[in-house]
Amino acid sequence: MKGLRKHASLLVAGLLIAGGALAGCGSSSDSASDSDSAASVIVTDAWIRASDGPMTGIFGDITNSSGADVTIVSATNSASSMTELHEMAMVDGEMVMQEKAGGVVLPADSTTVLEPGGDHIMAMGMTAPVTPGEEVEVSLTLSTGETVTFMAVAKESAAGDEEYHESDMDHSDMDGDM
Q: Is 46 within 8 Å of 138 (Cβ atoms)?
């Protein structure tokens, strides 16, 4: 029995040493994987405009350090039933807010600012008011298929009271103005 315990202990020790050696033989850091793009997209200074609804804007700085352009193709958030990527655009000589066709491109090795009066995320069909200080979870789906999730803190702001252009979209389930 004593010899069997000694043999088992040596076997376990040998497996631990072999496992550690194999772990050290992982892939080289010389080649970057395409699956690293979500980890290379980071959202900072995220905030959502406090609102009673039915819609509000989500803003922040998005840094893409992946070395390749990445596009935000869709988004979701915990404050509303519908989320769209929006832009401000000139329509019939007037600056209006509309859905951004093709998503928001995040150029390689740069920071894109989502802000009132520019590209932003719209929370539409809000399920409850968003009050100052409240945190809303936001998830972005990237063109790579990966998801980046972050928290946006609600704050009061007069910015974001733009006119909404609905010519190409059906928002019949939406009530009221932003």
A: yes
Can you spell out the DSSP letters for 15-53? Answer: HHHHHHHHHTT---TTS--GGGTTTTEEEEEEEEE-BSS
Residue 105, H or E segment: strand 104-106
CATH of domain 37-155: 2.60.40.1890
The b/e string for 115-145 (b: 16+ C-beta within 10 A; e otherwise) is ebeebbbbbbbbeeebeeebbbebebbbbbe
Domain positions in the chain: 37-155
pLDDT digits (tens, 9 = 90+) for 33-55: 344 555 799 999 999 999 999 99
Instruction: Check residue 68 and report its DSSP letter.
Output: S
Query: 79-133, pLDDT tens digit by residue?
Result: 999 999 999 998 899 999 999 999 999 999 999 999 999 999 999 999 999 999 9
The closest of 149, 174, 152, 150 to 164, measured between CA atoms, is 174
Pairing of strands 147-155, 135-142: antiparallel
Q: Tell me which range, 21-25, 34-38, 150-154, is most confidently predicted by mean pLDDT.
A: 150-154
Tokens matching residue 113: 């600012």
pLDDT > 90? residue 8:
no
